[in-house]
Design goal:
Two copies of one chain form a homodimer.
Chain A lengths: L4 E7 L3 H13 L2 E7 L3 H9 L4 E2 L3 H5 L4 E4 L6 H8 L8 E4 L5 H10 L5 E3 L1 E3 L20 E4 L7 H16 L3 E4 L2 H28 L5 H6 L5 H7 L4 H10 L1 H23 L3 H24 L12
Parallel strand pairs in A: 1-2, 1-4, 2-3, 4-5, 5-6, 8-9
Antiparallel strand pairs in A: 7-8
Helix pairs in contact in A: 4-5, 7-9, 7-11
């Protein structure tokens, strides 16, 4: 397969950014790679790992690249896009990997120069690890990547979307196009709320006086442990996600809380039939997920982890 | 190793009960095995699987056994104990495997005849599967089993506790003694609340109009999928757990909700520092769990699953 891009630039070299470099290299998806991270330590590590040529500034990294992937914490994406805008080549594609897409779409629309194809993106993949050493080439294998194109229908833009799709496909991902606002609502349910809940329950447990932290850890296999894994995800990234996707998260959270109050009331009044009805319904949903995973060539939902 | 009991009786042959039979057989922990389940279908299956001699009534099963393990749904434990009480041999041990222990302790105290050693118990193990075919001999390997002895200090009782501990140890479990009320609080945090939350979030997601169930399933790898697994646990068992451990569950749930309101408010007002502070703290707790698992001979917290 011939390379899809000539020169790929990755800005931000944590778990996702470094995995993009590794996966793209493994797939031969570009001819050359350049990277920038605001941390000098991370830049040095990227160089040591041989993942990419390292630039001293984001602008230098972006200059001459035909694909620029911003893989910074979500809140920095808009500012970084503004910072590199004037360095972007005409015909280049600008994308990102953040979990909240409407905010990125608006930032890209505001700053991307004419002739640059801005396409917000989101690989639905990750682990609870962070940093350039946590990345690996298989992170995106059989995982969805959602692209949220701008409302443009001109042929060069549509071709740029095709090309970016091919890049993610080459890295093993299955690509889906989605409207940015809808993406944010879907992810608020399937990812953001689960993370918020997990962070919250681990915090609640840690604050109990009657149960020690060591007891919580010891008996965590009964369900709690799964939450601690999710609640070990990158704090800065998740802070940004909740702030950037505030409206959708608060909307879903309000529904969740309402439902939880109803459950709480059913427990208090001993309404076992209501509890059983809900628990039977949720079990059926799980069966649907498992069945979907078995029947089709859909992405395997297991985690692609190193450890 | 000589058998620990002469005749082990298991009442209720679902995931846990059938696993006790399998694990005890594999360990040679008793000479003979007898079982009862209120479902004729399950009784036939237990017979087919060769797990135990099958009795026609709970009383017949209990008669002559020196260990009786009630492995029914939690709400039935008290009634079953009452039903078999007069059939229990003097010197026999009566135990159970339910997730709420104070209610069982009170029921056992009320009905166990003199000369019977009643010892509530709880193996902290399980999968989201149910039924006699879901059980397996390794379910308890390297998992905690908590025994909650009655407030008795006489030597025969303490010996009975020792003997029951040896039985669980033979099946691969690590045994811990705990006061029943404290058990219920610890498990409310580490198991009951996580299950309640998981059931709730899956229900909330299923009710959304704007996001289809197929989208939720498709993009569930971002965190949601872990919740669906937990929310696929046995509906009747979990209904019973919440009703039997109502006080502890409602207490922990109230704290959880309070904390969640504070988080919600921080998101609404853009207080990123508060979010980041919590997320950093919860990450440290996960590191503690992982470190504990690596450093010591503690039970591995991974799931012992067949599939």
């Amino acid at each position: 397969m011939p390379p899809i891009y000539r020169r790929v630039c990755v800005i931000g070299c944590g778990l996702i950014g470094s995995s993009v470099l590794r996966a793209a290299r493994a797939a031969g998806a570009a001819e050359t790679y350049v990277a920038y991270d605001r941390s000098a330590e991370v830049r040095a590590r990227v160089s040591e790992l041989g993942l990419a040529e390292v630039a001293d500034t984001a602008e230098d990294a972006a200059r001459g690249a035909d694909l620029v992937v911003i893989a910074s914490p979500p809140a920095a994406i808009g500012a970084l896009a503004g910072q590199i805008a004037s360095a972007l080549s005409s015909g280049a594609t600008l994308t990102d990997v953040g979990s909240a897409k409407q905010a990125v779409l608006e930032a890209f629309e505001a700053v991307a120069p004419e002739g640059v194809f801005a396409i917000p993106g989101h690989p639905v993949a990750g682990t609870e690890q962070s940093g350039p050493d946590a990345g690996f080439a298989e992170l995106f294998a059989n995982r969805w990547t959602i692209l949220c194109p701008l409302p443009r229908k001109d042929a060069p833009y549509l071709e740029a979307v095709e090309r970016l799709s091919a890049f993610w496909t080459a890295m093993g991902s299955v690509v889906e196009l989605m409207e940015a606002r809808h993406h944010d609502l879907v992810l608020a349910v399937t990812s953001h709320l689960p993370h918020l809940i997990a962070y919250n329950i681990v915090g609640t447990a840690a604050d109990l006086e009657e149960v020690t932290e060591s007891e919580v850890m010891k008996f965590s296999a009964g369900g709690f442990r799964d939450f601690t894994r999710i609640a070990a995800s990158d704090p800065v990234m998740w802070r940004d996600v909740f702030l950037l996707n505030k409206d959708a998260v608060l909307e879903i959270l309000a529904r969740f809380t309402e439902d939880l109050q109803a459950l709480s009331r059913a427990i208090r009044w001993g309404e076992g039939d209501k509890l059983e009805a809900l628990f039977t319904r949720t079990r059926a949903i799980r069966k649907g997920i498992v069945a979907a995973g078995q029947e089709s060539a859909e992405p395997n939902f297991g985690r692609n982890r190193k450890s």
